[in-house]
Structures are given as C-alpha cells and as structure tokens.
Amino acid sequence: MKLYVSVDMEGITGLPDATYVDSSKHNYERGRKLMTDEVNYVIESAIANQASEILVNDSHSKMNNLLVEDLYPDAQLITGDVKPLSMVQGLDSSCDGAIFLGYHARAAQPGVMSHSMTFGVRNFYINDVAVGELGLNAYLAGYYEVPILMVAGDDRVADEAEQLIPNIVTAVVKESISRSAVKTLTPKKAGVLLQNKTEKAIHNLSSAEPLTPPASPTLRIEFANYGQAEWASLMPGTKIEPNSTTVAFKAKDILEAYQAMLVMTELAMRTTFN
Question: Is 26 designated active site?
Fold first, then answer.
C-alpha cells in the first residue's frame, strides 16, 4: 500500500499562533520539531499497518519546514517550492490513500490560524461549494481517484472535513478557543491519538471513496480587496464578477482549476497599499 501524507503546520499539536509557523518568529524552530515528530507518529503507525511506501509532502509556506534528518528513515520527502501542485505535489493515481496532517479551517471561519492559501483570500468556491485548502486538495485527490483517509488538526477543520468527505476519520489534537489560542493535547498524548486514528483510517481503506470533483468546474475566488481581484484577473480566461472582489475562471477539469488558483493567488499577492 502506498500512502500519501500532506503536512501543513497550523493544525499541528500545541501550535496556537503565527510565532510557531513563521520562519522569522521566535517559536518557529519549536514548531518545526513538533511538526516532524507528528509526521513520524503517523508514519510509524502506517508502516505497522502494512503501508509499504510512504510519500510525505511538506505543505506549509515555503514548504521546507520538516526536519529531514529527523524524519522516519523509510519515508520519502518532497520539500521546497515552487511545486506545480503545491500542497498535493506527488499525489497521483499510484497512491492508495492520503492523509492530511496539521490542517486548519478555511478563511473567514473560526479556527486556529484559519485561512485559505493566502491572507488575501476570503473564499474559494468550486461551482457553488465553499472550500478551503482541505477541500481543494481533497478534490484534486479525487481527480486521481485517491480517497482521503484521515484529516488531523483542530476541531474546526475536523468539522469541515466531516461535512465535506463522507466517513472520513478525523483526529482532533487541539480545540480552538480563538484564532490564536487553543486547548491542546500534549505532543505525546496526541501521538497516541494519531497512531490509533491512522490505524483506523488504514483499516477503513476498503470502504473509503474519493471525493469526486465536478466536471468542468468554475473556480471563484473572493479576495479581500479590489486590487487583489484586478491582479488575479490578469490571468487569461478570468473575469471579475460585477460589483464584487470575486474573480471567476471556467476550468476544463479540477486540475486546471487548482493550478489556476495557484496562479491567481500569486498574482493577487502583488497588491500593495502604498
């Protein structure tokens, strides 16, 4: 069994705020260590439950956070950017199942450090379904017919996963008090939880189903200000919806929609307020 693991950082045990996930802040090295330890708990459990190949994709910020020297030796790691498929780089039809670890709630929703890709995004929509990073990544996994077996993070992303993906296994390692405060398990206690949930998720593989994306979807991105929408609309095939900061793109499939999202959000980040 080949298992794919996408690892974000905001949903890792014990991390309450940006000082742990921003490489310029004082708690970042602690966050990296906790993130790497958490991945190892999942890998060890997966191997104990018949996973023969494990591919880990570092999916936070510049995507070079995981400490490769401390990673479980039998795993392979994708690290750094630029990646054509960003948070799901390396995921394809050769994977039997995927786990999303350290994930967080989508933008404009309660949850620790909630956001969607960049802080200029208020909402992503696939057709009329509001999604965040979790939803976009799950749909792209579905494009390759790969089921999401488990989502781990705070209680709010667990709620989001359960609403979007039938029969998903969730592992709640912390509860959101506010966007920058949590009630958290200790890392060792969370490790036991993650190992048990990983075992359960793998045992459920035979009944897990991919999240099938819509054919020819329309991607809509609502930005925080009009300047961001203007930059995003420079991509061919896009248009700004009237009287809004929402930019729409009609895609041939979810793969094209996903890559359009990456281009549009990167363009939008060029906006300044000078």
Answer: no
